[in-house]
Amino acid sequence: MILHLAIASLFARALTVGMTILAIALSVALFLGVEKVRTGAKDSFADTISGTDLIVGARSGSVQLLLYSVFRIGNATNNVTWESYQDIAARSEVDWIVPIALGDSHRQFRVMGTTRGFFEHYKYRQGRSLAVVDGVIMDDLFDTVIGADVAQSLGYKIGDPIVVAHGLASFTEHKDQPFRVSGILEKTGTPVDRTVIVSLEAIEAIHVDWRSGAKIPGQSTPQDVIREMDLTPKAVTAALVGVKSPLQTFSLQRAINEYPQEPLLAVLPGVALQELWSIVGLAETALLAVSGMVVVTALIGMMATIFSSLNERRREMAIYRAMGARPARIIAMLVFEAMLMAAVGALLGVMLVYAVLVIAQPVVDRAFGLWLPIEAPMMRELWVILGVIAAGAIVSLVPALRAYRMSVADGMMVKT
Amino acid sequence: MTKAVLSLSQVNFRWPGRAGFSLSVPDLIVAEGESVMLLGESGSGKSTLLSLICGTLLPDSGSITLDGTDISALSGGARDRFRAEQTGVIFQQFNLLPFATVSDNIMLPLQFAPQRRKRTHDATREAENLCRALGLPDGTTRAKASALSVGQQQRVAVARALIGHPPLIIADEPTSALDATSQAAFLDLLFGQIGAHKTSLLMVSHDPRLGDRFDRVIRLEDIAEIKRDGQ
User: Fold this and answer.
1) Element (H or E) spanning A31, and its range?
2) What is residue A95's three-state secondary structure?
3) B172: left (phi over 0), alpha (psi -120 to 50) or beta
4) What is the pLDDT along chain A (416 residues), one digit of tens a residue?
5) Which of A49, A238, B30, B160 is surrounded by the fewest CB atoms within 10 Å?
6) Pairing outcome for strands A109-114 and A94-106
């Protein structure tokens, strides 16, 4: 009955109590929302590449290899010769191997030469394959498939011509060999969205008239002659490898790392991604800390509300005291009220997050390629709710102790 | 001589810190079933005396015995519970929790007094009976306390003091917020109820006109010595 009196007392102050609960609900929703985006971003990040067992490149650092081969950030220090690539491809452990040739660009986007195997084996977000929303995967030597961001920001349609520039941020263009957009990829939320994909041979073809990074003056081989030439590359930038059995991953990795003819590096994408996340994840942790402070602010707001209600409730407490309630009962009552407000606020906050998720999930996926999974409330949500209730109880102790002192001093007599 | 419900002997109390206000009561006894009016001007130490009797203040010396138990010998928690068991309290006004129903208000002391609760077999029925006996309309128990008039609220406060039949009712100017007609009606109802259960009544008032209904009228200045520094 003392509980239902406490609840009746809260209802009697519905407006201020409602506002307090709303503040807590919003702060909890913000906290959980940030947490959702954070884990969503982390999972999306970890899902940038999946299904690939090893990434092979010239010897450098594992994060650097991951950055240039998957994220197209920075440059390779060296290439992998075609002979080494062939050697690795021929090993018995290798199920499939996809070469990647980087180095050229189109506007602000990187151009990547690869084989059709890339579309077959490159997987993201737990095994999803790349899909063409418009057109087809390249057919001709001078066909290109572009990522969703490339198509969107440059306004490209199927059939549009593309001239590839030599190197990055360069004004020297491969004008003699323009490409044609043959396909546009679905939005993936991965660096593929910002990539212009051509065939490995095409990379070779546009460099026919080039020697050691510069165009040979006056030389311009016609396209039909190029088509007749042997366009086997002399080197690739990196390769994605799938092994036949996961057990062979480490032995293949060791074999590549100890490859005697050339200094090579093979990394496990998952491990390298985690290493990279430990660097970029810091910002997200800071964001989480800020939203945690918003929750603390809301709870301190609740403390202020309880404080300001104490004076008008002096009479109420004197009545309880006169009826035989101990001063400790007054503390318990105020702490209980605070916990109730915190609990209702936290629950509303969780519900709010799910409501927003249901609405925002497809929008966020389309706009940012960020997949926010809707899962049943897990331990984490439960801990947040319990944490908020406990914190509510703790902050309410401050006004409750003041009420205790007041009611000890007042006894059952209040002259109001 | 009948049994004493309340007896004070050689009680001395001095407000700690406050500008030298002290109260001493050499001897005060309220017998079982007796109704006593304590007359005193406001600021004469009535509230201090009531707080001492209820045990929310402790005397510096002397003993206060309620139904045979020296309350200053009890621990704080036990004293609170003892107060709940032994006394029903009626204030001047604003007696009720405004957000709670009338029946919640009446049954509130039973929360803190297990023996009174045990004596009250069906608390809800008992609350209804008390309301009826005090002339409140049927269905009042389900109303919110804040919806009642001041006179009705005071009657609910009486019902709350009476539920579970504590041996002593302490009333602090319960009629001061009522007009003369309502005062008379209120006292009729109060006396009707305490007479039925041989309950003792100690009522503090500043109005001697109400005195003839009581067994005994005493002036605070006759039984207590009040000192203020500088006087």
Assistant:
1) helix A14-46
2) strand
3) beta
4) 678 888 888 998 899 999 999 999 999 999 988 888 888 888 878 888 888 999 999 999 999 999 999 988 888 889 999 999 999 999 999 999 999 999 888 888 999 999 999 999 999 887 889 999 888 888 888 999 999 999 998 999 999 998 888 877 666 777 778 899 999 999 888 889 999 999 999 998 888 887 767 777 777 788 888 888 888 898 999 999 999 998 999 999 999 999 999 999 999 998 998 888 888 778 888 888 888 898 899 899 888 988 888 877 888 888 888 888 888 888 898 899 999 999 999 999 999 999 999 998 888 877 776 778 887 777 888 898 999 999 999 999 999 988 888 877 777 666 54
5) A49
6) antiparallel
Cβ of A324 within 8 Å of Cβ of B83? The answer is yes
Residues in chain A within 8 Å Cβ distance of B81: 324, 326
In A, minimum Cα distance to B80 occurs at A324
- Reduced to 3 states (helix: H, G, I; strand: E, B; else coil), residue A178 is coil
Q: What is the dihedral of CA A403, A404, A406, A409, to 10 degrees?
A: 170
Q: CA–CA separation, A393 vs A341, rounded Å?
A: 10
Beta strands B21-31 and B61-66: pairing type?
unpaired
Report how far residue B154's alpha carbon sits from residue B162's, in angstroms, rounded to the nearest whole number. 12
In this structure, what token pair is assigned to residue A53? Answer: 């067992």
Domain boundaries in chain A?
2-45+283-410, 54-267
Secondary structure of residue A200 in the 3-state scheme: helix
Nearest residue of chain A to residue B112 (CA atoms)? A324
- Beta pairing, strands A264-267 & A238-243: unpaired
Q: Could A324 and B95 be called an inter-chain contact, meaning their C-beta atoms sit closer than 8 Å?
A: no
- In B, minimum Cα distance to A319 occurs at B95
Closest residue to A324, CB basis, from B84, B91, B107? B84
The dotted CATH code for B4-228 is 3.40.50.300
Structure tokens of A354? 């799910």
SS3 of residue B37 by DSSP: strand
For chain A, the straight-line distance linking the first and the last C-alpha, in angstroms and rounded, comes to 27
Query: DSSP labels for B122-187?
Result: SHHHHHHHHHHHTTPPTTGGGSBGGGS-HHHHHHHHHHHHHTT--SEEEEESTTTTS-HHHHHHHH
Cβ within 8 Å, pair B77-A324: no
Domain segments of chain B: what residues? 4-228
Residue A16 corresponds to which tokens in the numbers above?
Answer: 């201020």
Task: Spell out where A223-269 has E strands.
Answer: 235-236, 238-243, 264-267
Measure the CA angle with vertex B17, ends B13 and B19; round to 5°: 85
What phi and psi, each to the nearest 5 degrees, are found at residue A236?
-125, 165
Nearest Cα neighbor of B189 from B173, B176, B175 is B175
Query: Which residue among B76, B89, B94 places its CB closest to the CB of A412?
Result: B89
